[in-house]
Predict the structure.
Amino acid sequence: MSINYSDLALEQIACHPGSVGFRAVFKLLCDISDLLPYINAIVEKAYYFDSPHYIKFEYEGYRCVLYAQKGIMTVVDNEEQARTAVGKLLEFLNDIETRKESITPDHTMYSPVSAFSIYKLLPRNNCKACGFPTCMAFAGALGTRETDMDVCPELVDPNAENVIALKDLLGG
Ligand code: SF4
């Protein structure tokens, strides 16, 4: 099976205050559900979910989310960069596909961290700079890895106690 894509589209997102980027969304032309546990085994920090069935990981500096027949890569600046990034990701997936026989699949699912545990470590000023309406909404998204800590401008000091505690809670 060779994995290909179609229907690449860019969706604008707020990255950091004062800057914008895009997420590249594309359709996968075959169902890669069976491949997800193999990706989980290969990628050092992957987050594998069963409902809905998808996997989230970093590849070459991009946050990647793969569903059975859909992929998302974040953050890209333009369509050319998106095509290059998606092309490399598909090469990676096709390589895993060809090596499946020699890889032991990892079916371990990721357990999200409770939003309230995260919320207690946030600035809790609801400034919306992260693009979420409240710190609690951001906490919920962080717990399921739909966003990243550095999206909040108040969480950039690596020596701050709450930042260290959050990294521990989220597994780095
Ligand atoms: S998480 Fe950070 S950026 Fe988002 S609303 Fe709270 S303080 Fe503001």
Observations:
- Strands lie at 5-14, 20-28, 47-50, 53-59, 62-67, 70-76.
- The pocket of iron/sulfur cluster is lined by residues 122-123, 125-130, 132, 135, 138, 152, 154 (CB under 6 Å).
